[in-house]
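Could you show me just one protein sequence together with its fold in token form as a worked example?
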Amino acid sequence: MNPIVTISGGGIIGSYISLRLDSKNIDSIVIEKSINKPFSKENIRTLTLNPYSKKLLDKLGIDIRHSKIKKINVIDGEGTGQIDFSSEEINSEDLSYVVFFNDLQSALQKRVIKKTLFETQIEDIKEVEINKSCEIILSDNQTIYSQLVAGCDGRNSNVAKIASLEPFVGDYKQIAITFTVKCDLEDVDIAHQIFSEKGIFAIMPLPDHEELSTHTIVWSVDKAKILNQAPEDYVNENIAYFEKKIGANINIFSNILSFNLFNHHFDTYICDSTVLIGDAAHSIHPLAGQGINLGFADADVFCEELIKAYEKKMLLDKRLILKKYEIRRKNMNYLMLKSMDFFVDLFRSNNVYIKLLRNIGLTSVNKAGFLKNFFISHASGDNKI
């Protein structure tokens, strides 16, 4: 096998890249260590797509059920600060879209399944100077010769380890809790986010507003507040606080999932023929739901640079392609990571003066149209370099 690009990781971003390149007749192959099996029918985990990410999927004919968010209400649960973001303020139809993780991954994987090798992973990558390709050795002893290796294999990227790329890792000392609920909020296109001593709480409408489960909740909590308590017990004991804040009843519908929260990034995304993309290159706090959108922005830029070079019908200068990708994406991703860290630290603080300043700050930004538009346009994906 001699594809132009070998993609490590058959998740959402890896599958998207393969499908995008295939639309331009650029051959790729996807290496996925898991077995090929149907996804669970229980939909709990969700993703929030910004308009740009959704547009990328629409162009490839990926049409899955989704809910629309037209307004986001953000409040400081310990004070009076509040800010509202509306799609009307930036002359956009919607601010974002909520989709089920399983739906999106399944839709993409089905389109590239013929190009996917399951139950194997990359064991080694050797540069071959004769034809400027690399030799990729798989765990099942297959060998692939390829121009580029795209690491899309998550935060513990196997490809990054093979390339001897060392990440910088930060621990938020929080867990994220997510589940679906039946909630009687009247407005079905509004999301609410509450910062409080009980955690960062977000509630968003689900696709189709299903009869039994209408909203999804993503709740980040300091580990110190849970201690030896089970996440389910913490949720049951504290959900009433947020019911009062949003003025609605919340009835838990699904199982409750939880996972530890970390961030990571790399000083460089590239090594010889290898490049890191999406969660393999960076991860951030989920409070703004931007992790998947940064991944799509990475994938879009990588594909853009490769397609431009390929269409010139010249010998691929892979080092130039990868460097352009890194220049366009690394600083943007790092800026978003640090922005999320700032907000986490700001709303975690119990200092009375910081609490006062953040209340004043939220209210001031809410009154300043140009600042709100800046934040919204950045989150919507309009500022992709």
Summary: Confidence is low (pLDDT under 50) at residues 351-357.
